[in-house]
Amino acid sequence: MNIAINSQMLFRTILFSLMSVLLLSCNDNNAQEVKKPNILWIIAEDLSPFMGCYGDSINKGHTPIIDKLASNGVLFTRAYASAPVCSASRSAFITGRMQTTIGIHNHRSSRTTDGEVVPEELRIHLPKDIKTIPELMREVGYFTFNSGKDDYNFHYDRRGLYTVGSKKDYVTGMNGWQGNTAINYMSFTDYVWSSRPDKNQPWFGQIQIMGGKKDAKYVREGEKLNDTDVPLPPYYPDTPVQRKSWTLHYNANRGSDVTVENILKQLEADGELENTIIFFFSDHGSPTSLRHKQFCYEGGMKVPLIIKGNSPALNKGTVRNDLVSLLDVSATTLAMGGVQLPQYLDGQDLFSEEYKNQAYVIGARDRCDFTIDRIRTVVSEKYRYIKNYWMDRPVLQPSYRDTHANLRDIKKQHEAGNLTPYQEKFWFGERPSEELYDLDLDPHQMNNLAGNPEFAAVLKEHRSQLDNWVEETGDQGQYQESADQLKATYNLWKEKKQFKEANKVNPEYYQFIESKE
Fold first, then answer.
1. DSSP designation for 98
2. Which residue blocks in 416-455 are alpha helix, DSSP H?
3. DSSP string covering 130-145, please?
4. Per residue in 395-432, pLDDT tens?
5. Residue 178 burial (10 A CB sphere; 0-12, 13-18, 19+)
6. Backbone φ/ψ region at 113: left (φ over 0), alpha (ψ -120 to 50), beta
7. How far is Cα 366 from Cα 451, in angstroms, rounded to an integer?
8. pTM of the model
9. Could you tell me how far CA 196 lies from the centroid of its own chain?
10. Among 15, 58, 123, 398, which is least packed by CB within 10 angstroms?
11. Could you report the per-residue pLDDT of 168-188, keeping only the tens digit for each?
């Protein structure tokens, strides 16, 4: 009897052990199946989407890697930056907040001399409840890095955002005028995914490519466009200088295709490509067009956005025409990483069941370098509305670009009387308080409908949308920048050629000029 009982107990023990092993095995398999994805932001500097996948006829067939990324992922045709300049845009998407709402909207603020800690009177602190996207990703187990520039307009500890890559002499609070950069600037082999000790740890990283600034030098052999190969928009005088400047950005798109290819090859060589979700986008539009970067027309605000990876949400070959913002990139990244989305985010998870199409996307331009301005814009499905708050400050008021060949050329044509009536008024005349453009019928945005009675209702609709947004969000651009921040900007620029030779700089600086400080 005892023998039978003992045999039965032994059998049950063995059976239980086998079931436990099987369960553990199943759990391991499930763990592998639900492994968190790696997430990579490939951020192109200053790149308008002059690409085949965006329907550009000139670059069709000459951006094959980016085009393939789009055909294997999700392409957004109406993606917009929150600002048409680097630091304001980057400060927004790294926090998930509109820059004007939390006071990080003025270009290159909360800065000081490279290698020095920003003094307290110049520091802009984020609200206490806000954490950056990398910090939130680290909290759920991600290894993080940024091999490019930060360019954030707020006080922060870089080592708190990024697991690796900060320079050895970095001290919390350092933030030079060009922003902090990683040890091996723009590397995709050092201080990136390959640096994590545990190769099973998921990673979230940013790799910068030079895009519209310098990628034109990487154009594939035999594919470089000549200056006369690209039609010039009618808002420019038809001169060799303007043609060269305009064509350069088409070549930059071709060159960026090469840099993206190199990054993808490295991911594949390291065995990281299959489990990596890639976001490809830019911080704002072209730097070689005087009407794109720093201005709120489509050229400054519209950016490429492609998301590709092995995720059920990313249906291969999807093209989305809804209005989206780079703030949605922030929310989507967190969602894909398994972060519970903070309530304060201004963007949405682009693939959530609760996602709602937006009728409008807001953009903003404020001080850029030493040039003080305030412009707000609303884009809808059919129209772009622009509000200029400083009408007496012309488009070509003194700026950092005054030494650039294309700007010197347009001033030369102005002095020689060679500009068309539209060009003369747009570049050198007083700006209108409001602008309204039909994006379908007027892609160059030259026919301002704001004064047309037939569009009074459309104008009112967009104006009301902006006015409500300014009030609801507490747009910080309503208020003058602090004297400390302005003085720091003045001290940076006062001896530079652009500032010293300006006929009339912004009056906000007179307090420092007159006191000769």
1. -
2. 421-428
3. ---HHHHHHHTT-EEE
4. 999 999 999 999 999 999 999 999 999 999 999 999 99
5. middle
6. beta
7. 25
8. 0.93
9. 26
10. 15
11. 999 999 999 999 999 999 999
